[in-house]
Design brief:
This protein is of the alpha/beta class. It contains 7 helices and 7 strands, in the order E-H-E-H-E-H-E-H-E-H-E-H-H-E. It is globular.
Length: about 230
């Protein structure tokens, strides 16, 4: 499905990241996988040695993002898709009790990291006159909950950036879309919420399949979309 396409995945390991990375390898993409700590040994796939390049780096600045893109281009000569999975969660307090450090942390990991990556990949894609950008938001970006102001606001800002990228690149052959999942069925979430009904949670493989589709030629006219993946938690 993605023969010869080069895909850069941030947050490429972990609960969602591993499922997404394996889905892209299954689609025959060449994958550059980014995380603070990452190795080929984490992925059980026959193509991991030849089709996967681990990049151990945090995304703390535009320079970091540009270095990641440079490594990807040096390895495979082009960049066809950015799949941005990096994110974090904090909450549990009302707005008057939410400190500035929590807001800063949520915007750094959920919004600025995506901005840095977009700033790094867009010139490359604009030069190619093609490319796909996908990011993981959250249902809370559209439907905020009490006590989760910093997280919800940072994800809403990410969605706004995605839609702006789509608008600014309508004539460039570049698409930009966001997926907004409900709670995903990952080991971390099960540990944090052991009493929840896991059967209602979103399967990472479902999100991964959607991301593969958005990076494919079959979705070349899908841009500016905010895609809900809520499972049975409607």
């Amino acid at each position: 499905m993605l023969d010869s396409k080069v895909v850069l995945i941030t947050g490429a390991n972990g609960g969602l990241g591993t499922a997404v990375t394996l889905a892209f390898l299954n689609a025959n993409a060449r994958v550059a996988g980014v995380s603070a700590s990452i190795s080929r040994a984490e992925f059980d796939h026959p193509s991991v040695e030849s089709m996967f390049e681990p990049i151990a780096k945090r995304i703390g600045s535009r320079k970091d993002a540009e270095e990641i893109v440079s490594v990807t281009q040096a390895k495979w000569g082009r960049l066809d898709a950015l799949v941005h999975l990096v994110g974090g969660f904090a909450g549990g307090t009302a707005i008057p009790d939410t400190d500035a450090a929590t807001f800063d942390k949520m915007f750094e990991v959920n919004t600025r990291a995506f901005l840095y990556m977009a700033q790094a990949v867009l010139p490359v894609m604009q030069g190619q006159k093609s490319g796909s950008i996908s990011a993981i938001g959250s249902r809370l970006a559209l439907e905020p909950h009490a006590g989760l102001s910093a997280y919800a606001a940072s994800k809403a800002a990410l969605v706004s950036l995605v839609r702006t990228i789509a608008l600014e690149n309508r004539a460039t052959g570049i698409t930009a879309n966001a997926i907004l999942p409900e709670t995903m069925d990952t080991p971390t979430n099960r540990k944090m919420m052991p009493k929840d009904d896991f059967s209602k949670w979103v399967r990472p493989e479902q999100v991964a399949a959607m991301l593969v589709h958005l990076a494919s030629d079959a979705a070349s006219q899908v841009t500016g979309a905010i895609i809900p993946v809520y499972g049975s938690a409607l």
